[in-house]
C-alpha cells in the first residue's frame, strides 16, 4: 500500500505536488486541507501517525539497531516520544480540530493515549492515510535550480519541479535511497528531538548519572528511588517530572531528595506553592533560584549564587530543545539560517509570519510555535494559511516586505532574550501575543476570526492557569473541570477559520 502511495505521487504530473515532512498533528492537518486540490504525500520516519504523541518503546538505551537508523544518523538522537501516562497541559476543548469534538469520556486534560486515539479517529474520518508514507526518512530537500549538472544526472529523473527530495528507509540510512520531486515542501517535524544542554564548566568532573528529559520513561522512576535527584530547568518538562514523581508515584518509591534549579521567576512561584508545601517544608524538595556555574567534584556543583549542591546522584536536564533540520542544513541552498549562541540553535529564519521561508516561500514550516494555549487551533490556522497560498487563493507580499515584517517580529522577540529563543513563543502570557498572532493568520488567509473560541480560552483557561500554575500549583490544574461551562461536544465551528 505504501509503495503504491509513493508510485502514485511520483507519477502524478497533472496536479500541483506537495510533500509534507512529518505525520504529527500539523502534518495531519496539512494533509487534510491540501489533499483536495493537490497531489499530496505526507512522509514520516515512524511506522504510524502522531509525531511525539506516538509512543515509541525504543529509545537510545534499548534500540536494537541504533547506529543504522536514519534519524539517529542525521540527528544524533532518536525522535522524541511522549512518555507513558503523560497528561496534556491544555483542556480537551482547546485540543480539538474544528468540527471534530473529542469523546465525552476523555479526561478533561487528556492522557497522551487519548489524544493519540483522537488523531487516529480524525485521520480515519478524513481518509488521510491514503496520502501517507511511513517508515521513511527525508534526508535532503534541495532546490532543483541550484543542483549541479552532476547532481541532476545522478537522480536518474527528468527534473521538472521546484524541489528534489531524497528519501530512504528509516531503519537503515544506507538502504533504498530514492528521489521525489515537489512544487511545495511543508516541514511539520516539530522541534522537540535534539536536546539542549547548557554549557557548564568542568562538566567532565561529574560522575553521577546524567539524563535529559527527552529520554525519560516510566521505568526511570526506579532509578530515582532513595537518590538525590537534581532537575535543572523549571518549565513544562520539569513541572511534569515533579508532578509524576511527587504526586503520582508511591512515596516509598520516591527520591530521597529533589533539588530544582531554575530561574528566579519559576522558583518564586514554587515558594508560594500549596501543592508542594509539605515537600518543601520537609526539605524533600529544595529550590535554587539561579544557574549552574560549574561542577566542582564527582558529585557536586556550585551555583552562580555561590551555593553548593552536593551528593548528587542523578542530574536531569529539563532544558528544552534546539531547532534542527538536517535535510536542509546539509546543503548550500541557504533557505534558512539559525540564530545560535554557545552552539545552541535557538531559532531560525527568515520566516514570514513564522511560516513561510522568505528566501523560498514554497518552503513552509508548520507547528514551530510553542507555549500556545490554543495549540490545535493555532496549527489548524497555520495549515489553512499554507493551503490557501498553495491553492493560489491568497498571495504573499514581496520578498522585501516579508523580510521587513520578519525583522520587526524578530526584534520584538528579543525583548526578553537577545539570542532569539523567544521568536517562536506565542502565548497569552509571554512572547508574541497569541490573540494578535491568530488575527494576523486570519487576515493573511482571509478567514473569519473565531471570537467564541477565544472567549472560552480567555474566560475559562487563562484564569485557571493564573490560579494554579502561576501560584506554583501545577498538579492541581490537571484535576480541574471546565467542560461543563461550554456547549456539550464542543469543537470550533466548521464555517469559522
What does this structure look like?
The chain has 497 residues and is α/β, with parallel strands linked by helices. It folds into two domains: 2-193 and 322-477, FAD/NAD(P)-binding domain (3-Layer(bba) Sandwich), CATH 3.50.50.60; 197-319, FAD/NAD(P)-binding domain, CATH 3.50.50.60. It contains 15 helices and 24 strands. The protein has helices spanning 2-11, 25-34, 70-75, 112-126, 149-155, 221-224, 236-247, 264-271, 277-281, 326-329, 375-390, 399-413, 434-445, 451-467, 474-477, and strands spanning 17-21, 39-43, 132-133, 136-143, 163-169, 178-182, 184-187, 194-195, 209-212, 228-232, 257-262, 285-289, 292-297, 300-303, 308-309, 314-317, 321-322, 337-341, 344-349, 351-352, 356-357, 363-365, 426-427, 432-433. A five-stranded parallel beta sheet has the order 3-2-1-7-22, sandwiched between helices. It has a five-stranded parallel beta sheet with strand order 9-16-10-11-12. α2 packs parallel to α11 (375-390) and α11 runs parallel beside α13 (434-445). The mean pLDDT is 94. It comes from Tetrahymena thermophila (strain SB210). Belongs to the FMO family. This is Flavin-binding monooxygenase-like protein.
Amino acid at each position: 500500500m505504501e509503495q503504491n502511495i509513493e508510485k502514485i505521487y511520483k507519477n502524478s504530473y497533472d496536479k500541483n505536488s506537495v510533500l509534507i515532512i512529518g505525520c504529527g498533528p500539523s502534518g495531519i492537518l496539512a494533509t487534510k486541507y491540501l489533499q483536495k486540490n493537490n497531489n499530496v504525500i505526507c512522509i514520516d520516519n515512524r511506522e504510524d501517525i502522531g509525531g511525539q504523541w506516538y509512543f515509541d518503546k525504543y529509545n537510545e538505551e534499548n534500540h536494537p539497531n541504533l547506529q543504522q537508523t536514519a534519524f539517529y544518523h542525521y540527528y544524533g538522537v532518536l525522535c522524541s516520544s511522549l512518555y507513558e501516562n503523560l497528561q496534556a497541559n491544555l483542556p480537551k476543548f482547546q485540543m480539538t480540530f474544528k468540527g471534530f469534538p473529542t469523546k465525552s469520556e476523555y479526561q478533561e486534560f487528556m492522557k497522551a493515549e487519548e489524544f493519540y486515539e483522537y488523531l487516529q479517529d480524525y485521520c480515519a474520518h478524513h481518509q488521510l492515510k491514503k496520502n501517507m508514507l511511513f517508515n521513511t526518512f527525508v534526508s535532503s530537500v534541495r532546490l532543483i535550480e541550484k543542483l549541479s549538472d552532476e547532481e541532476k544526472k545522478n537522480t536518474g529523473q527528468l527534473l521538472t519541479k521546484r524541489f528534489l527530495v531524497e528519501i530512504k528507509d528509516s531503519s537503515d540510512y544506507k538502504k533504498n535511497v530514492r528521489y521525489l520531486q515537489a512544487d511545495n515542501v511543508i516541514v511539520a517535524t516539530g522541534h522537540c528531538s535534539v536536546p539542549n544542554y547548557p554549557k557548564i564548566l568542568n562538566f567532565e568532573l561529574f560522575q553521577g548519572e546524567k539524563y535529559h528529559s527527552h529520554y525519560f520513561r516510566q521505568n526511570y522512576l526506579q532509578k530515582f528511588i532513595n537518590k538525590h535527584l537534581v532537575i535543572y530547568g523549571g518549565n513544562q518538562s520539569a513541572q511534569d517530572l515533579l508532578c509524576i514523581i511527587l504526586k503520582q508515584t508511591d512515596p516509598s518509591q520516591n527520591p530521597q531528595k529533589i533539588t530544582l534549579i531554575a530561574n528566579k521567576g519559576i522558583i518564586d512561584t514554587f515558594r508560594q506553592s500549596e501543592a508542594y508545601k509539605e515537600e518543601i517544608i520537609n526539605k524533600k524538595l529544595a529550590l535554587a533560584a539561579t544557574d549552574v556555574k560549574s561542577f566542582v567534584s564527582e558529585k557536586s556543583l556550585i551555583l552562580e549564587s555561590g551555593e553548593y549542591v552536593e551528593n548528587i546522584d542523578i542530574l536531569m536536564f529539563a532544558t528544552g530543545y534546539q531547532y534542527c533540520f538536517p535535510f536542509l542544513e546539509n546543503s548550500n541552498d541557504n533557505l534558512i539560517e539559525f540564530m545560535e549562541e554557545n552552539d545552541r540553535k535557538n531559532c531560525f529564519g527568515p520566516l514570514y509570519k513564522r511560516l513561510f521561508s522568505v528566501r523560498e516561500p514554497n518552503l513552509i514550516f508548520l507547528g514551530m510555535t510553542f507555549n500556545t494555549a490554543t495549540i490545535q487551533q493555532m496549527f489548524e490556522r497555520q495549515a489553512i494559511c499554507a493551503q490557501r497560498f498553495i491553492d493560489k487563493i491568497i498571495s504573499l507580499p514581496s520578498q522585501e516586505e516579508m523580510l521587513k515584517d520578519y525583522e520587526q517580529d524578530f526584534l520584538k522577540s528579543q525583548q526578553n532574550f537577545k539570542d532569539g529563543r523567544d521568536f517562536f513563543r506565542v502565548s497569552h502570557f509571554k512572547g508574541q501575543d497569541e490573540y494578535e498572532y491568530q488575527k494576523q493568520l486570519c487576515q493573511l488567509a482571509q478567514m473569519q476570526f473565531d471570537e467564541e473560541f477565544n472567549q472560552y480560552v480567555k474566560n475559562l483557561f487563562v484564569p485557571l492557569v493564573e490560579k494554579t500554575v502561576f501560584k506554583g500549583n501545577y498538579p492541581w490544574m490537571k484535576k480541574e473541570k471546565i467542560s461543563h461551562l461550554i456547549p456539550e461536544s464542543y469543537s470550533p465551528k466548521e464555517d469559522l477559520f
